[in-house]
Amino acid sequence: MSTLPPCPHCRSEFTYEDVGLLICPECAHEWRRETAADAASGETARVWRDAHGTPLSDGDTVTLIKDLKVKGSSLTIKVGTKVKGIRLVEGDHDIDCKIDGVGAMSLKSEFVKKA
């Protein structure tokens, strides 16, 4: 017996889950599963994800997946550089961290993977 809810669009019972989304094969409707706590509060907590979709949290260690130029400097941070103890923040650059040899930086989560 399936524990997945029926499609809210066409009420089909043949829904399946794929990468955090529920999908209806009959009408191709996609939606996120809402927990009872989310429905009651009306707000959802933001989840930061790396380039591969892995959830990130404060204090994680990440690795750069792309060479990044430091704005205002001739310095380039190379691919494979490990960054320890990240802090997640709201905004365009959603990771605050310290990189050895460079100093304090703000990174975008799309350019890192969880180590």
TrEMBL record:
Membrane-spanning residues: none
Ranges of residues in domain Protein YjdM C-terminal: 49-115
Pfam families named in the record: YjdM, Zn_Ribbon_YjdM
The organism's place on the tree of life at top rank: Bacteria
Family matches, as InterPro entries: YjdM (IPR004624), YjdM_C (IPR013988), YjdM_N (IPR013987)
Residues annotated as domain Protein YjdM N-terminal: 3-31
PANTHER family listed in its UniProt record: PROTEIN YJDM (PTHR30305:SF3), PROTEIN YJDM-RELATED (PTHR30305)
Family: Belongs to the YjdM family.
NCBIfam families per UniProt: phnA
Protein name: Alkylphosphonate utilization protein
